[in-house]
Amino acid sequence: MTATPLDPALIRRAPKVLLHDHLDGGLRPQTIIELAAEQGYRGLPFTDPIELGRWFRRGANQGSLELYLETFEHTVGVLQTREALVRVAAECVEDLVADGVVYAEVRHAPELSTQGGLTLDEVVEAILAGFRVGVARSPGRPIVIRFLATAMRQADRASEIAELALRHRDAGVVGFDIAGPEAGHPPGRFADAFRRLVHASFHLTLHAGEGYGLPSIREALDLGAERLGHGVRIVDDIEVEGEGHVRLGRLAAYVRDRRIPLELCPTSNVHSGAAASIATHPIDLLRRLRFRVTVNTDNRLMSDVTLSSEFAALDAAFGLGLDEIEWLTLNAMKSAFLPFDERLSLITDTIKPGFAVLRQEQSAGH
User: Fold this and answer.
1) Is there a catalytic annotation at residue 38?
2) Measuring CA to CA, how many Å separate 334 from each of 152, 260, 274?
3) What's the maximum distance between 2 C-alpha atoms anywhere in the chain?
4) Do residues 226 and 204 lie in contact, with contact meaning Cβ atoms separated by under 8 Å?
5) Which of 47, 101, 288, 346 has the most CB atoms in a 10 Å sphere around its CB?
6) What is the rounded CA–CA span in Å between residue 196 and residue 183?
7) Is the distance from CB of 150 to CB of 179 less than 8 angstroms?
8) Each residue of 183-213: pLDDT tens digit?
9) For the chain, which domains are there?
10) How far apart are alpha carbons 35 and 39 in whole angstroms?
């Protein structure tokens, strides 16, 4: 444990990896206001970017996943044109680059952006085009960014989205996800879609173990999930006994033994009620037990976070230090839905050298 918290600027410069970030949860408030004006969208609670940002944060921080999800009405509302999707995707890349992210998988549910007449394919094509624009605007600060196609639990379009993802798998779509309210919407009803994806050797990550408990984690794994979106409730299968002894239940042991990645989003988990606070977040126990823990943002607008601020909060709470942040970053890169050679290249050519430089600076400073 480090004696003093790390300098936030140092954390921001560290080469980081992000696996769980929603495009519609990361818009800039000013962009929402401008898109609403351009599109004639009415209903924004504020037209001042500072006040609008505060409104989103207040709305999300209610201790309920269902209430948390209600704040997306307005971000989704302005993501109904190709121009808006391209702009928001490009700005997403710019914001991640500014935060030191070198690899990111950003997700969105294309079905949410078809209210203005766009087809599912046009939504995906616009987002991928926006990613290319954002990368082109960031010369000298390379980032690799890929897309996860998401289907909504409460809808009935998983098969369509699965086929959509497969159509674009060679253009930048690297995985499939199910999101939305967990309680009352089991993903098992989409089993045929999951079988189709597994048969096609396509990657799966499912939201599970956030708003609902261990049964959602078990079901996600049974359906072929390679990663758990959040998965924080796996702690319900871990018993901490006297004198620091820990006993893992069968499911928790399986998740750890199989190195199944947990896409933990600390601040969002607190806002949605999956954890009581950062200081008591199960991520500390899970990392000490050496689960395949990764740190993520979930929704940067709603939770007012960056990946750097998430690491800074965890460092302040648990004294992570630079070595542990690197371990968590390597966990994420090893778990990415990117071909092995590309993952290895980012680890050996970018991540490890980047942390080595920061450690040298840290040592020189002492």
Assistant:
1) no
2) 27, 11, 26
3) 62
4) yes
5) 101
6) 25
7) yes
8) 667 778 889 999 999 999 999 999 998 877 8
9) 8-361 (3.20.20.140)
10) 6
